[in-house]
Specification:
The protein is α+β, with helices and mostly antiparallel strands. The chain has a domain of about 60 residues. About 35% of the residues lie in helices and about 20% in strands. The chain has a 4-stranded antiparallel beta sheet with strand order 1-2-3-4, covered by helices on one side. A hairpin with a 5-residue loop joins β3 and β4. The chain is elongated, with a radius of gyration of 37 Å.
Amino acid sequence: MKGSILALACLMAISAKVSASELVYTPINPSFGGNPLNSAHLLGVANAINDHKAPDDGLLDEQSDLERLAASLESRLISQLLSDVGNGNTGQLVTNDFVLNIVDNNGSLVIQITDKETGESSTIQVSGLVPDL
């Protein structure tokens, strides 16, 4: 009995001195309000654990001047062909890679694209077009 009273007295004495306050979040990352002196350390840690390497597939190779000129001319010719179709004309464009046929049948536009290498063909039909006057 004396042990339980003594234990209860100790518990009450300890609990009387316990106090609490609010939990306050302090961000570490300077982008979210943390200490700006942490930025170099955080960047160094991020670079150290980054194991991602850029793909080396050659998709970003620079085009030569001739390739850029050819691509620009193809784009311009396709644009001119489409604007001619708006005037009621039809046309065909043949390049090294594909054949483009455009036909306007009284407001129904038919575009046929044929890949020269594989022979695959795609047809796009648009109805309800009003020709330019």
